[in-house]
Amino acid sequence: MASLRLGTEKKLAEFFSVTAQGERDAENARIALSENREFDPYAAFKALDRFNNGYLNYLDIKSFLEKNRIFASTQEVDLLIKQYDSDSDSRLILSDFQQLTCPSTSVAIRDLAISRSGPLRLSLDVEFLLSRLLEKEISLQRRLETIRKELEASPDFSIFKAFETIDYPPTSFVTRNKIFDFLRKNLVSAFNDDIDGILRRLDIDGDERLSYGEFSDAIKCASPSIVVHSPARESQTVRHSSPLRRSPSPNRTADREFRTSGYLDSSRSLTKSSFLETSGLKSPRRSPTRSQFLSSSNGFNKSLETSGLKSPRRSGNLEKSLSRSPTRSQLLSSSNGFNKTARSQPEESEIVNVFIKQIGLDRDLEASRRDLALCSDFTLIDAFNIFDINNYGFVTQVEFEEGLRSLGILPIKDEVSLLFKHFALVDRRLTFSDFCKIVTTKDLEYSRLINGRIPQNLPRYERRRTFRLNTEGLFVKVMKLLLENESVAESLRQQLERRPYFSISEAFQCVDKDRNGFITFDEFQVLLGDYGIYVTRKDVENLMERYDKDRDGRVSYSEFLNEVTPKSPRRY
């Protein structure tokens, strides 16, 4: 796959540099706030919780900012909440608020702030310091989102290319040394504290390296559509706060025991906060009383010092994941167990790595499809008519490429060819039903929204101005992801083919545990579980759909061979 241009690489390096600087400024603001004798996290939380709900939503935080004459858009406040939201409900409970306001690099100052007890009101000094901290967080989110949009607008940019650029030599993880090397290559000075700050922000699972999912979650733009605060948001892309946020040492040497404790080695759920599990805060909606908070927080801090974190890694994910769709970052961030439990067979570890990335690609695309489904002016017929200018009821590859160009996408012919090989099963023509499979989310709740809408059926010369600007932006994003996913999938196939001793038949046998010549749903799930990768039922269903061409509920060797065999003469 082609590398990034020099200007795009420098913009990517700027993203890391801004992240490090922003985290440094925010940490200094946390220390200044926590050192103030009048600051009590519980009292501050209650002061912002206007209606005594036991949580803070974006309106609570925005109201506090406006009171202190700090402007922030709804999207910026929402990004701030996502950074610290432990259970993906777009709300901050007391433990989340503690992570936001208490320092990560000084256990003593953090403990001192937590142990304070005072009136449930904010002094003028504390209100000023807290508003300055939130202002720095908002400013950082604003700057990062601007860089994300500039990267996305670069014609040569893709998240996969960016990850490959930094991940050299390739290991499927971006380590602190690779970040150092990448920044040095682009003439950006960085120190250990800077890398610590980057990892605190981006490293979700606390293993001091960035998986592809964590990297993607950090780099991708927020949705351009209006932020909707509803239960449906739980299935959208989220950025969880890193466990390193709670790390007492900025240089990772003093907290080596924390990283190697049972906290990182036990099973992780994709939706529950490890802080909640260890602190005894059972309710994801209600905050504890002061006594519960103080006792749990003290126990948490002690456990950091003694490496006593033994909670399951967010266990119970399979049951919860049936009702919510985790993002790609949540799946791939759990893959730190992959290397630790790697099997002796190279084929098995290689094919599991492919499964991880394929599931991640499907998750990312599915999240964008759901965002698109929420746009009230989007209909499948109007979208299809952008490509089917002649009203034939099908679209050829040339017509599809012309439609993409009309949307501002400059496709590589080979990527479109891969897309047609995947979805256009009849005469290499994309029918309306094929197009619906490409664009429609598999979530019935969202797909019903699209199916119930009436198309505009505009005349031919107006079809390419069908949707509102935000809707068109999301539609373009889905189209780009489709092309990128096909490109990445082909890259994975060619990587397997280039492995000197990789055997497809042995890889198939590694998945086919009962040796009956077929791979079933349960065998996919068991293999991934053996590597510490806990996936939802929908994830495995998507994986089955990718391999099970005849839809008989099992994958034969010929179907498996067909999917992992390269399909393009172009080298990726």
UniProtKB/TrEMBL annotation:
Molecular function in Gene Ontology: calcium ion binding
Protein keywords: Calcium, Metal-binding, Repeat
PROSITE patterns: EF_HAND_1 (PS00018), EF_HAND_2 (PS50222)
Keyword Repeat tagged: yes
Domain EF-hand as annotated: residue spans: 190-225, 375-410, 499-534, 535-570
Compositionally biased spans, kind Polar residues: 263-281, 289-309, 318-344
Sections of the chain in a coiled coil: none
Region (Disordered): 230-344
InterPro entries with a match to the protein in the record: Ca-bind, EF-hand-dom_pair, EF_Hand_1_Ca_BS, EF_hand_dom
Biased composition (Low complexity): 239-252
Key word Transcription present: no
Protein name stated in the entry: EF-hand domain-containing protein
The species this protein was found in: Blepharisma stoltei
